[in-house]
Amino acid sequence: MTDAVNGEPTMASLLASLMAGEDLGKERAAWAMDQVMTGEVSPVQLAGFLVALRVKGETVDELGGLVESMLAHATRIDVPGPTVDLVGTGGDRAHTVNISTMAAVVLAGCGIRVVKHGNRAATSSSGAADVLEQLGIRLDHTPERVARIAQEAGITFCFAMVFHPSMRHAGVARKELGVPTAFNFLGPLTNPAQPSATAVGCADARMAPLMAGVFAERGTNALVFRGDEGLDELAATAGTTIWEVRGGEVREQRLDAAADLGMTRIKVEDLRGADAAYNAEVARRVFSGEDQGPVRETVLLNAAAALVADATLEGTASGSLTDRLTAGLTHAARAIDSGATQRALDRWVEAAR
Question: Where does 84-164+175-352 sit in CATH, by number?
């Protein structure tokens, strides 16, 4: 179904297709996102589109089309050299401490250039932006300055609301819907620096392999993972499914961090956080080496996943997944214990003043 005047799609035609169970494909999904980004779609139309797409079931092509259009409307930056992002989709309602944010600083301590993309809390008690502010990181920088900080400090933060201003047009519909839609999974796919490697925790079992498929089409090396209990983190709480993306191919694997890596079995409650101030204090204890418990071990594991995606440090590029993660754990632990992680945070705070 197309517009009778010019043959172009309309939101009504896309809704009709979705309600009939038809896939939109990449081009029509990208067209729809372009309409959203330019403010041409009403909140009612957008809500209908997102719900219909969710009920039908998103595809890799549709997700890829949404991502391409969102990036076309984003403020982009270029950060030289291999770069890595480490992020969770949120939505697991576990209210854990900021695992991926802490792990990102550990990556910087390992000498990896990190370009983290994130926002304030939406479904959690403390988002990446919230806890970074508590750690002394200023977030009100221009995109050009954000890119320079990456080179000066080895780590930087792309505040989503600054780099994706067109997403404001979707705010009302998303807030009023109050349920997860495809838009909940676009953040990790739309880092404005488009890093060469990414580790992503995804709380949704159906969306995780789709995200991996988008990374594969883009040529980005990635580890996408989901805990059996629904965590968007790697943790020794239960088994985990991992979709490893390398060379444009996706390989699904299983990991039990306790059984396969010799880590101590923990409970989700062991990782529970609170507000940004509390979570920042937890981060300080991890970086200083004071915390030797479940939070530290989980931070190390997630940092190891990003190191495996990056595959530049010794032992992280070849061998079994467990062998590579083991090597990553060693590098991550050394970064904390040597003080390199704390120094990385100090450099970041100074560069971001």
Answer: 3.40.1030.10
157 - beta bridge partners? 116
Annotated binding site: 88, 91-92, 96, 98-101, 116-124, 128, 174, 232-233
Residue from 324, 245, 310, 295 nearest 110 by CA: 310
Tokens of 245: 């993306």
Binding residues for 5-phospho-alpha-D-ribose 1-diphosphate: 88, 91-92, 96, 98-101, 116-124, 128
- Token look-up 């100090």 returns 346
List the binding residues for Mg(2+): 100, 232-233
Q: Nearest-CA neighbor of 95 among 246, 278, 254, 244?
A: 278
Distance CA 293, CA 300 (A): 11
0.85 surpassed by pTM: yes
pLDDT digits (tens, 9 = 90+) for 59-116: 999 999 999 999 999 999 999 989 999 999 887 778 899 999 999 999 999 999 999 9
Containing 20, the helix (H) or strand (E) segment is none
Determine phi and psi for 135, rounding to 5 degrees.
Answer: -85, 0
Q: Which segments of the chain belong to CATH 3.40.1030.10?
A: 84-164+175-352
Was domain 11-73 assigned CATH 3.40.50.620? no
- Give binding residues for anthranilate as ranges: 88, 119, 174
